[in-house]
Amino acid sequence: MLERLLSDYARTAYGREHGAAEVRTIADYRRAFPVVTYADLEPLIRRVTAGETSLLLPEPPVAWGMTRGTTGQSKSVPITSTDLEMRAAGSRVLLNYVLRSGRDDVLQGACLNLNYPAQVDTVQMGGREVPRGYSSGIYARYNAERSNLRLVPVQEEIDALGGRDSEADWRSRFALVYERAREESVTMCIGVTQTMLRFARFLRHRYGLYPKDVWRMQLLGCTSIAGIHSKYKPALRALYGPVEVLEIYGATEGIFAQQLDERPYVVPNYDLFFFEVDTGREVKTLHEMRRGEIGSLVVSTPVFPRYRIGDLVRCFGAPYYRCIGRERPLARLRYALERLIHWG
Predict the structure, then answer these.
(1) CA–CA distance, 213 with 192 (Å, rounded to integer)
(2) What's the pTM?
(3) Which residues contact residue 291 at a Cβ distance below 8 angstroms, ignoring those fewer than 6 apart?
(4) How many angstroms separate the CA atoms of 66 and 244, rounded?
(5) Treating both helix axes as pointing N-terminal to C-terminal, what angle do 193-207 and 233-240 enclose, rounded to 10 degrees?
(6) Does 55 reside within a domain?
(7) Residue 145: which domain range?
(8) Is there a domain that residue 174 lies in?
């Protein structure tokens, strides 16, 4: 995987500056490329936005993904066609559920679309316009197109309501979702965990109903927050019924891992990314982590080499991991306390 990424980096000015073509080993890679954060790359990203595509990208972006800034600073991340193809990894959680359970009827129903807009505005790049939107909407639209998954409502209807984030705007989105989906056979919902909870509260307040009163869902594919199984699963099942709650670990920068069996952990997409972790004592590859070890995740993506994403991960015995939260002061202590409270 690293060899493939390095061939892409060698086609960029940033990669050439760091000698991507001369890298032969993981040790070479670590010596040549520093670990970077979004703040480190932001000046280069601004230049890419202005049209200097090859500075950081091996191919022109087809979209820009934006974040809400709820887990840190707001970001805009370029998404190339290669990068977009890799986002199809989000469907692995669904396909593995079908294979494990034998419930292929989940594919016959609709997927409740609670995602953010896939296009909010455009970025002017050297004379051409590139769409910019929220990563959850971009993922949803692309995976629906690739897998023939039927979104209700379709992503274009969500986009048409605009990209504002006020309470009134969310009420408009949720009202649209309910009107379009209430008579549909909805079998799943895949998206941001907080939005699923928010939608359930809206339904109760506006219509006196919970999602479980309207649909018989089988599956919730949950993203974007730590503690999905330990903290949020009981509430999700109380609101949506006896659903299978499955975790997807990703960010605007990519879909990095997903739950593949009944164990409440995620398995990394080693075939798509190169993963390292900084434990505070050393930097090692993710698969070298020992059970119980915690570290800061460093991901090499098609766009960002050795990118410190700002998440802490814990190893539960390879190949099982869990994101335990953002890399912040006292984060490890907070995780230990939450683990004690929620897991006993």
Answers:
(1) 21
(2) 0.91
(3) 315, 316, 317
(4) 29
(5) 40
(6) yes
(7) 34-343
(8) yes
